[in-house]
Amino acid sequence: MGLYDMIECDYPLPGNPECDNNWQTKSLRNLLDYYKIGKDGSLYVDPIANDSWQVLKDFRGEIVFHNADANDKWWEYSALFDNGKLLSIKCVSE
To answer: How many Cβ atoms sit within 10 Å of the Cβ of residue 45?
Structure first.
């Protein structure tokens, strides 16, 4: 199974999933780091989990993250970034 990273998403998600905000991803470093997509679409990292969020200005690529809601419905999203800013986000689990 391996390690993964956690990601919070404060940006509105398509489909409005009723999940907690602790999403998992294997698209990044897989070192149990904490990431966040801010309300403005910026990508942040908090590598030591002490609320010292740093903007990842140079990140380019896709982050796929997933979670399950209280009814065990699987939610998976693909978010595309350029220079640390969200370009698009879509639900890929439907």
So the answer is: 20
Please state the length of the chain: 94
From residue 79, alpha-carbon distances to 1, 13, 71, 82, 88 in Å are 23, 10, 24, 10, 6
Predicted confidence (pLDDT) per residue in 76-92, tens digit: 999 999 999 999 999 99
C-alpha closest to that of 67 among 1, 3, 7, 27:
7
Q: Using alpha carbons only, how large is the chain's radius of gyration in Å?
A: 12
In this structure, are residues 37 and 10 in contact, taking their beta carbons and an 8 Å threshold?
yes
Is-contact 67 20, C-beta < 8 A?
A: yes
- 8, 22 contact by CB (below 8 A): yes
List beta partners, residue 64.
78
